[in-house]
Each structure stands twice: as C-alpha cells, then as structure tokens.
C-alpha cells in the first residue's frame, strides 16, 4: 500500500510541475530593465529571474525561453537569443 501511495505522490508532483513549466519563443517587442520584463511580438509578457543577465535581451532580437509560473507571473529560468 505504501508503494502505491508513494507512486501516486510522484505522479502528482510530476504532473503539477509540468503544468507550471513552459517554453516560448518570439521576437522581443520591448524590454523593461527596471521590472526585469520583456514582451514578445505576440503579447506574451515574461519576467526574467534574478541572476540571469539582461544585456542580450534587446528589442528586435529573437529569443527562446523556458519559464515557470510563479505567483501568476511567467518567470524566465533560461533563455537563448537566436
């Protein structure tokens, strides 16, 4: 019985993590260095996590980003400028 409960817990945790994580890509429409936020050409707003540099994120650059939802915001955890 303990194995079944443990397995169900692992499945629930993996499923909930998958719901919080995502990837997106697009052309950067605007950069707000004070708020550490970028807006993509499709209107998606992303906030860049503390510790990640902002210097490569410029208007007009194409970016591919991985993010997690935290407190209702999509927080970028990793990005690549294309």
Can you give a write-up of this model?
The protein has one helix spanning 2-20; strands at 21-32, 37-40, 45-48, 62-70, 73-81. It is an alpha+beta fold and 82 residues long. It has a 5-stranded mixed β-barrel with strand order 1-2-3-5-4. Strand 2 and strand 3 form a beta hairpin. The protein is globular and about 25 Å long.
From the structure above, extract its key features.
single chain; 82 residues; alpha+beta; OB fold (Dihydrolipoamide Acetyltransferase, E2P)
Brief description of this entry?
With 82 residues, the chain is an alpha+beta fold. Helices cover 23% and strands 46% of the residues. Strand 2 (37-40) and strand 3 (45-48) form a beta hairpin.
From the alpha carbons, calculate the radius of gyration and give it in angstroms.
16 Å
- Overall helicity: 10-25%
Assigned CATH superfamily = Copper binding periplasmic protein CusF
- Indicate the multimeric state: single chain
In round numbers, the mean pLDDT is: 83
CATH topology, what is it called? OB fold (Dihydrolipoamide Acetyltransferase, E2P)
Q: Structural class, from secondary structure content?
A: alpha+beta
Q: How many strand elements? A: 5
SSE layout and pairing:
Layout: H1 2-20, E1 21-32, E2 37-40, E3 45-48, E4 62-70, E5 73-81
Parallel strand pairs: 3-5
Antiparallel strand pairs: 1-2, 1-4, 2-3, 4-5
